[in-house]
Amino acid sequence: MFERPESGDRTLLVALAIGDVADMEAQKQEFRELAESAGADVVGVIAGTRRQPDSRFFIGSGKADEVAAAVASSGAEVAIFNHPLSPSQERNLERHLKCRVLDRSGLILDIFAQRARSHEGKLQVELAQLRHMSTRLVRGWTHLERQKGGIGLRGPGETQLETDRRLLAGRIKHIERRLDKVQRAREQGRQARRRAETPTVALVGYTNAGKSTLFNRLTESQVFVADQLFATLDPTLRRLDLAPHQSVILADTVGFVRDLPHELIAAFKATLTETREAALLLHVIDASDPERDAHIAQVEDVLEEIGAGEVPIWRIYNKIDRLPDGDDGDTARFGGDALWLSAVTGAGLAELEQRLARHFTETMFRGWVSLPAASGRLRSRLFAEKAVESEQTGAAGVMHLRLNLPERSLRALLREAGLDEDPESLRVGREPGADDPGDQEPALAETSRRS
Question: FRET partner for 362 with CA separation of 20 to 30 A, picked from 106, 131, 174, 398?
């Protein structure tokens, strides 16, 4: 009986075109890049076409013999298929090929397992792997007896399978509970940002489109960057100042890819919430990629699947420094509302920041306000926000402040202080007298705290 090897990176890739596939060469190249991103030592690629998958081997018996011969001649230790395989197809192929077999979903899960760095990311990947594994337990116990239904005929194999299933189910529930705690903590952070009315802008796009490089240039961060698929897995949030008293939260998210495993989408729902609840999505596109139109469609499909299809989105064509000479990123060709830039050279970044500042233009509150003497904490917050241009003290300790800050920020501070949220209730009709500011009746004298 075939014994599955414990390890090995010598890999044979099997890329099968089902039906009419126009971009098969591009898919094969991406498949190879995925395998190399996982650390595979690719020793060969077997291609083929079928009208529909074979129920036993997926690739058909003739092609299976060809793959088996290639495995034997190349010394491959694992065969990776560029399609999802059923548990029975995976088991049949391992028996026939005499090597480990992995499908596209398993390959992507392996990459994610290598790249996860945060506690949440590791939990999410483990959850996805366990769900994927739970349908494939049977293959590890095929050398043992099966239950046959009669007295004295029940073998140990089924008992071990049931034990493994219980262990897996228990581990999955444990991880789900831990992820639920992490998700609640993330939700508290989102609520705090909503209370502060700080909008979130999420970078989305196909994997290796340059999102992390753009993120680093905009926020002066040090997020890991590499020219490989899924270089970034864990989401990162940073504050981006667009203008005085005007900022957004910029979120760098995991890249998408065609045929993203459903186990990953389900496991990463907490992380993807940042995308769904963003005020704006920046769809980063590799302008130099000949398959960019297909990748745009793939990203938009995933956004619809995770419930982010209604969020406003801008297309950002990146890597214009890689365009052929004479092709300077014509905005008419890319679409009138699109932005073209290079995160590496910095070309176009200033225009992006200016457009973001205009998009999130806030109504500024400028003028004198009066605060009760008991509002010392609010006064301190206003000074901390550098919103106070000058200050005078009136009768009974009333504080007259000349403010310059976004109106929504002032509303949030007033709400926290328990005062009337309408900034106009604070405004002084005229500038307090230079000689005696207390001569002017403060506009907030009768403002009462909320009960």
Answer: 398
- If phi over 0 gives left and psi between -120 and 50 gives alpha, with beta otherwise, what is residue 152? left
Task: Round to whole Å and give the CA distance between 202 and 209.
Answer: 14
The CA distances from residue 308 to 273, 281, 301, 304, in Å, are 9, 9, 10, 6
Q: Out of 58-62, 181-185, 254-258, 338-342, which region has the weakest mean confidence (pLDDT)? A: 254-258
User: How far apart are the C-alpha atoms of 89 and 58, rounded to whole Å?
Assistant: 7
Per-residue pLDDT of 237-265, as tens digits, reads 888 888 776 788 888 877 777 766 666 66
CA distances from 270 to 112, 115, 184, 239, 253 (A): 16, 18, 9, 20, 12
| CB distance 45 to 32 below 8 Å | yes
Mapped onto helix, strand or coil, the DSSP state of residue 103 is: coil
Higher-confidence residue: 209 or 65? 65
| CA distance linking residue 399 with residue 393, whole number of Å | 5
Of the candidates 299, 294, 298, 343, which has an alpha carbon nearest to the alpha carbon of residue 317?
Answer: 343
- Token readout for 439 is 């001569």
Cα separation, 334 vs 316, in Å, equals 9
Nearest to 81 by CA among 57, 62, 65: 57
Element containing residue 166 per DSSP (H, E): helix 156-195
- DSSP per position, 310-339: TS-EEEEEE-GGGSPTT----HHHH-TT-E
Q: What is the 3-state secondary structure (H, E, C) of 397-419?
A: HCEEEEEEEEHHHHHHHHHHHCC
Contact of 40 with 34, CB cutoff 8 Å: no
Tell me if 116 sits within 8 A of 129, measured CB to CB: no
Please give the model's pTM, rounded to 2 decimal places: 0.63
Q: What is the pLDDT of residue 1?
A: 41
Q: Could you give the CA distance from residue 238 to residue 198 in angstroms, rounded to a whole number?
A: 12
Give percent of the chain above pLDDT 90: 9
Q: Which of 405, 403, 404, 394 is nearest to 372 (CA)?
A: 394
pLDDT, mean of residues 301-325:
84
pLDDT tens digit sequence for 139-193: 444 444 444 444 444 445 555 667 777 777 888 888 888 878 877 776 676 666 5
Cross-strand bridge partners of residue 365:
405
Distances (CA, A) of 230 to 8, 214, 220, 405: 22, 15, 21, 40
**Which of 287, 296, 294, 300 shows the shortest CA–CA distance to 333?**
287
Asked whether 58 and 83 are in contact (CB, 8 A), the reply is yes
Q: What is the mean pLDDT of residues 415-442?
A: 64
Among 46, 20, 53, CA closest to 31: 46
